[in-house]
């Protein structure tokens, strides 16, 4: 369970970082940090003595070929190098900062590449230099750059201490875009911390920054004034970036870290990759052995995955990687998972988030999986990108004897000969043949007039008057219904028909209603819903337990209403797919809105679960023919409106829809609930024609704080092919407090 506590920070907005305080004592050798070549630091096993982060270089200006050397405090016995977080800012040219010894090979994790533009943070390991082996040296290659350096720990010989090995977990997101205000701190409680854990490996990311600043990460219990001397992220408006952080655990139960944001506001996420523990048989842990080599260099297409089999030592439990992404054709995310698939909790994580013009690099601690416990899978989500994955170390149990050759697996028992297939039971009498389904799955082709509503050439029989259906299994096919339809039975089908209503309706009236508890498993397909007398009261389909497929709905106030007032605790059981909502009826005075204007939505969910909305075209624009047409702009309301007025809304799958227009194309509120987990909202394609509130301020996806999702909202994309939505005023995803 994630626990986040918000507190006020102690620093004034204009305060410069205070002079470095003495390093806290009592640092425990806790972990292996795979960061450099074996011949330099790691050898056949190394550990990390983590410290409370502290700034050791502040605002050093380095010209081309220039270096900064700093003396480090309180170096533990047996140390080979220092683990640093290096921040590069205000670069005048593309350049690389290195922490390598002159004349020695320089591995990828001893380099940090930056360029003019956003501030670049990254983890480096530097060998100790100087006569007393108590200094580190950072060198700049080109142009001029401002450098900050924070000390996070020391690399030690594996034999220097019996402490600490790395225990991987299946990566998972434990904090999703949590807002953090200026000079505020938050306590992040890490879930499922194993016994003996001393530090945690996290991928920390940011987005939606309102100004340039920095974020610090420290063990809980560290004074804010001390923590704020260092940084792990450097937010900037319009940028989405992440950085790996190895942070000592603090708090009374040694399961918490504190994050502090200095300037402006920002949204943060955290992906858990593993723990550094005192060796224990309770978890699959290992000390780190150095390694070098490139595991993958490839241009990955949108949605492409590559499973890599690594040359891992016997018994290895995890690998540390350097992942670089370049030349992205749109906003995308690169994920790395153990084994041979990207699934479950790991699918919601990312290591780098490149976009055009922004090459990204990061390190990652990933468990090994697959049949030989030597495989990882790399996946790219949303746009073509070049990816390079380099191996820099493996976590291997230090007390294990060399792994014996695996005992031959017992020969599987011969598969029993398949039993003769039983004679098939007599097939049930076939249901009435449905209209031929399109050959394309929902979400493949955008619904329009030619692909929704009554199929061309259908002969319709007119029916005058409202219909109340009480017989289970009723099928209405090929009818032009001048009345409202109320379904009060199970398994009712309406297909190849038009439903027009019989008048203005009253209060909230569906052209088709499924409001009674007796309505279950209704199907409305290849049908047009259009009122002959548009009014403030009419919705296309209203209620629960219905499937709408290839429906054309227009000239209504709302297209589809989803809730179950007959049983508020029951699931809604609604499917809407391959349908088209457009040209809604606007009225300046709506009795249901205190005689204010109508609230028009293509889909409004007011409660329930088990809801699937896939492959629809939701155009939240007001009609130029129906309604009173007194609107200030056609783009009003929402394509999707989530308002849990009747019951909590959970377990929704909404994917691969086309959504445009509205005051917001998709709006999520939590109603009277403090939190609400909506479900999955992913791979939807958004237009750019939302209402302009002034100065180009638009809402594409608008979310109330406290609403969470099973996958990141950044998996949604722009319909024009320009890439993924991101958090930010002009980037597509905005949160309200």
UniProtKB/TrEMBL annotation:
Source organism, top-level taxon: Bacteria
Residue segments, region Disordered: 401-461
Pro residues: compositionally biased ranges: 403-439
SUPFAM superfamilies membership: Pectin lyase-like
Key words, A-Z: Signal
Signal peptide positions (record): 1-15
Protein name, entry field: Right handed beta helix domain-containing protein
Natural source organism: Cellulomonas carbonis T26
